[in-house]
Design brief:
The protein is mainly α and about 220 residues long. It has 8 helices and 3 strands. The chain has one domain. Strand 1 and strand 2 form a beta hairpin. It is globular.
Length: about 220
């Protein structure tokens, strides 16, 4: 890691022992998009930290972001540094392919905030704020994340047929699988990173600002 990267990390309150916390920021930002952090999304983020094998200091940083929503300015600068690290030749742990996978994990965590796990895989499960947050993160990271299902259905218009929720889904968890950076929700096969994302309805952790009322959210 170059001195320039170390200096940038220092301005973000990070260092060489905690910088991998940045891998969690896309999912954290999307999870907070509506102004609340649901217990389901928080549980998904905790699982993601375990699968990324973050050290204790990096976990402490992420949990601070879970307690208090990071500012938009902080997120913008931090994601830009994550993008720069991915393109650095001396940073073997972060690359472009990983950034693409992180975007898919961010969508998976957002879907984990849906109170009804049978509806979590539906195109309309993501809120407008979450969809916008995913787009913002993708632009900063320079990742072509494509369209969310909700965007695609809106583009197709009223003639599009909405897929019905699968009643075979567990009522206590959402299974997700990431293949080549593409999320598949409802899989029963394990894949590792954020493979199992609990999605149980419960009170929000924090409100800042108030979230628009949604009938399917915790």
């Amino acid at each position: 890691m170059t001195d320039l990267h170390e200096d940038k990390l220092e301005t973000l309150g990070l260092d060489s022992t905690t910088y991998r916390a940045l891998l969690m920021l896309p999912a954290v930002y999307v999870a907070w998009a509506g102004g609340t952090l649901s217990a389901g999304a928080a549980a998904g983020l905790e699982q993601m930290m375990k699968d990324l094998e973050l050290n204790e200091r990096a976990v402490s940083v992420v949990r601070r972001w879970l307690r208090e929503r990071p500012s938009a300015g902080y997120v913008s600068h931090a994601l830009a540094e994550l993008r720069d690290l991915a393109s650095a030749v001396d940073e073997p742990q972060i690359d472009y392919d990983l950034l693409q996978a992180l975007m898919s994990h961010a969508e998976a965590v957002a879907r984990a905030g849906v109170s009804d796990p049978r509806a979590a895989a539906a195109p309309w499960a993501l809120s407008r704020e979450e969809t916008q947050a995913i787009d913002q993160v993708a632009r900063i990271l320079g990742v072509d994340h494509g369209q969310t299902w909700a965007d695609l259905m809106q583009e197709l218009g009223a003639s599009a047929q909405m897929p019905q929720p699968d009643p075979t889904h567990s009522t206590s968890q959402i299974r997700t699988k990431i293949v080549n950076g593409v999320i598949q929700v409802g899989s029963t096969q394990a894949l590792g990173l954020a493979d199992t994302v609990p999605a149980q309805p419960s009170p929000a952790v924090r409100v800042d600002p108030p979230s628009p009322s949604r009938s399917t959210r915790a």
